[in-house]
Amino acid sequence: MNWMDNVCYVLYVFLLTGCLGDTQFFFRVRCSGTGCGGSLPDYTFVQPGVQQSLLADGAHYYGFSYFRQVKDKDSKRGYFQKSVVLITKLPYTKLFSHLMGVIAPEYFDNGAVSLESAGHDIDRWPAPLPGKPLSLPIMGTVIEARIPSKQDKPASVAASPPGAPGPLVLPSVHEIDMYRLLYPVVKYIHLLWELVLTNEPIAVVASSPTICSEVVQALVNCIMPLQYCSDFRPFFTIHDSEFKAYTTKTQAPPPVILGVTNPFFIKALQHWPHILRLGQMAYDSKGQKMSKSGGTSSLDSKPGLFTLYKPLLGQDKLLLQALSSKETGKRRPLDAQNAILRRHLLELTHTFMIPLERYVASLMPLQRHVSPWRALPVLKPFDADSFLKTVAHSGPQLTSGLKGDWVGLYRRFMKSANFYGWLRSRQAEANGKLRTLYVESICKADVLFWMRDKTEVEIVDFLIKMKLLMQSATSEHSLSTKQHQQLVSQMETMVQRLPEDLRTLLTR
């Protein structure tokens, strides 16, 4: 089964839910089979400056669906049923969900000409470069957005003042309304953060694709800016090609987060260690309090987190009081509650990662050890025991209000995919910085002075190393035009001092 089959099955399953009116949700499928990735843009050119948690994933696609089902006496089935779907590799859930809310209703009202118009508008969009303001015209309106960059300060977003005229300004392209979604289980927020941080398998059981897809994304976002490096499926169906692998009882559940609505999953996933059940949302997408409906289904049971996991850290009781107090909730807007929760989780993740970041920085060779005449230095290997020794005297227990077994949490984290993904990223960044320093040292070196007592073999060997270095740096876009010109000049200077036969050989 290829990825397009998985997309079609997701949409087919939703047709069977019986939801009337307009419904939006999103999903994520693995890229596999014929034509995988062939027709979608390659975003590698924007990756270097993007926050790690917002990198485009070449192995998966996001799908954003807008489904309409209304009674239609002219239809054989008695209903008009149709979905409009946007497929992308970019994880900008807020932006694309809003975009579908603009395009799909126009299509349902005016037909295919609306999709053509939207396509023409999107073709004129600028490249999604991080840190740059983006003006995105779409069907007579303009969306103002910005892709976060690595240089952004935590929780820095652009926002438009209430009632401001002109284009719609999206404060974020990716952030989900976390408090609205997790309000029924907010008392478990620290436990959920631990489970997501350590890549524990979690099943999110909800009554609709809209709820389960948004909640899964909210869980993934709760450890930002750290990238969630395991698989996650905001809306997962029994027809997915990986259904058997993810539900088998012959081995431990894989480290994934699944969002499901089919009651069959209650039995199929009962062996999973962590099940998050959600009933009806307390607030709708506009932040309005929702009234309880009269009927209930097997998925509308009391919400809660069903797990035997014993958390390693305690709770922030002041935070829970601020979020859960009925009196406070009446006085404080939903947006403010959401900001408080998001900021707390951001600071918690930041506090947890500081010792790791500091330790990796200590593995960096000193700049004085970078020499053009020696081999390119590399980052020292990460040693878990050595790191844990640093936690005892400079760990988060000294500054965080959360008490508990921080060392135990680091041990669990260092066995997870999130840790290995973060470590690979930091190693690549550090080695890239070392290579930049190495290139700068070569550009500034007095090559003629060095060549005075060197043999032809040594000089040719150095020229070959320089050529390979240039090719590697150029392919990774880490070499500036000025540096490239300086390296070429240095190589030409060295070649000109060699015998004619060698010059001819090296310049071929």
Write the layout of secondary structure elements.
Elements: H1 3-15, E1 21-30, E2 60-71, E3 79-88, H2 93-110, H3 112-123, E4 133-138, E5 141-146, E6 168-169, H4 178-182, H5 189-197, E7 202-205, H6 209-221, E8 232-233, H7 243-247, E9 257-260, H8 264-268, E10 274-277, E11 304-307, H9 317-324, H10 326-331, H11 334-362, H12 384-394, H13 406-413, H14 417-444, H15 447-451, H16 456-475, H17 481-496, H18 500-506
Parallel strand pairs: 5-6, 7-9, 7-10, 8-9
Antiparallel strand pairs: 1-2, 2-3, 4-5, 10-11
Radius of gyration: 27 Å
The number of distinct β-strands equals: 11
What is the strand content? 5-15%
Structural class given helices, strands, pairing? Answer: alpha/beta
Number of continuous helical runs: 18
CA-based shape: globular
- What's the SSE pattern? HEEEHHEEEHHEHEHEHEEHHHHHHHHHH
Unreliable spans are 156-165, 290-300
Q: Assign a percent range to the helix content.
A: 40-55%
State the major sheet. Answer: 5 strands, mixed
Q: Order of strands across the biggest sheet? A: 8-9-7-10-11
Q: Give the termini separation.
A: 49 Å
What do the pLDDT scores average to?
Answer: 83
How would you describe this protein?
By secondary structure, this protein is α/β, with parallel strands linked by helices. Helices cover 43% and strands 13% of the residues. It is built from 18 helices and eleven strands. It has helices spanning 3-15, 93-110, 112-123, 178-182, 189-197, 209-221, 243-247, 264-268, 317-324, 326-331, 334-362, 384-394, 406-413, 417-444, 447-451, 456-475, 481-496, 500-506, and strands at 21-30, 60-71, 79-88, 133-138, 141-146, 168-169, 202-205, 232-233, 257-260, 274-277, 304-307. The strands form three sheets. Strands 8-9-7-10-11 form a five-stranded mixed sheet, with helices on one face. A three-stranded antiparallel sheet has the order 1-2-3, with helices on both faces. A three-stranded mixed sheet has the order 4-5-6. The longest helix is centred in the C-terminal third of the chain and has 29 residues, at 334-362. The protein is globular, with a radius of gyration of 27 Å. It starts with a helix and ends with a helix.
